[in-house]
Amino acid sequence: MTTLVRDASSGALTRDALTVLQPGFTGTTAPEWLLRRIGEGLSSVGLFGRNIVSPEQLTALTAQLRAERDDVLVAIDEEGGDVTRLEVRSGSSFPGSLALGIVDDPGLTRAVAHELGRRLAACGVDLNWAPSADVNSNPDNPVIGVRSFGADPELVARHTVAYIEGMQSAGVAVCTKHFPGHGDTNVDSHHAMPRIDVDLDTLRARELAPFRAAIAAGSRSVMSAHILLPALDPERPATLSPRILTGLLRGELGYEGLIVTDGMEMQAIAATYGIERGSVLAIAAGADAICVGGGLSDEETVLRLRDALVEAVRTGELPEERLADAAARVRALASWTRAHRARGARTEPGAVSEAGVPPERPGGGTAPGTDIGLVAARRALTVTGSPVALTGPAYVAAFTPVANVAVGDETPWGVGPELARLLPGTATGTYASDAPVEAVLRDAGERRIVAVVRDAHRHAWMARALDALLTARPDTVVVEMGLNRAPARGAPHIATYGAARVCGIAAAEVIAGV
Prior knowledge:
This protein has 17 helices and 14 strands. By secondary structure, the protein is of the alpha/beta class.
């Protein structure tokens, strides 16, 4: 049977192929090739930390993109907390999802998401690849962790809903991820293909619960995961699976919004299918937009993917109607965000929670200031053991693991800068897995040691370093900025549930007794 397709020379097929792509680029201004492709039909652009210097620069960049086409979607991966692009060089002004889940005040989560959305909208960003609706049921998960609201499906669901409501009320569309759930993996899909071997009943009760809630809350887009779930499809990962994207997400769950893939250059897809083949299979399976550009950010990649989609239609591998439907869904979301921009964001900074809960420190007392991110970080922080209020300079020993790709290694974290501001003379040293504790003791001298760790339960070397350090210096203050799964120890032990800049500020305030 001959497959009838539109003549590519008419431009319609090529425009549709460009429309479904969400590429990135390098630089802090839009390159000429990107502007040209936007003029030809490219409908989305993804921004990363490499593209952002300041809010003013970002605003100028988005204006440059929209001067070419006023309905172009400008997307960003801005979860807040450990994963920030807006404040990649300083650390986030907002705690991440786990800290919000620890507080468990949906009103606070809604207010944080609204303020973050307000700042994104003010810079011209209108699609946020967040929140993570993954239930972090595996504490050894190397890529989700503090990016999840927690390990309880109901808690994750209610905070996912609150985040969606807050962000979208600011005029920024969310992209709830990573469907159908990346929380029970022990492999990072940036590097290889994760596999979740649980039965269908468990998946429905645990992984799918937050996504059902997100769909009911009106999530404008959903991001697929590059994971294999044999109970749903034993052959293809979710991003490439018609059973999962069309049968489950569209059919059973009734989702009608935009389906976006996770980054196609991630090794779970690129190393097994290739990005061209993977993109064709993803659109055929039911995805509407191809995210690419975190690692590949050049015009050649865009043209390769465009041509692969066009050729797949010509050969009949990809139904033309499926590509047209995908492009129509991208344009529909662009229309929604453009309408919100035209009306102007109905936002007011400084809200605290829908219940008007005043910010309190873990030890009690109302904290000064109305910055919603710092309010949330202070409320999340927990202290175990005797309180501490240092009066002299300290020595901060930062035990630094290798950051996962989603977080990146360019964003500063820890308590050193803030503690130095409160306790002049405080110094910081960074230690990796091969550093002997004797080096820490030598560098610290007589100063009180503050040991800062991140997911100590996942790093045996870090746990050993703490053992040796606490044996030699029992008065060491321990600050855990990850999941806080290891036994509490230190004088005292402080848990921030994330490594955002505001989490470091909150911990430093407690250490200095402010």
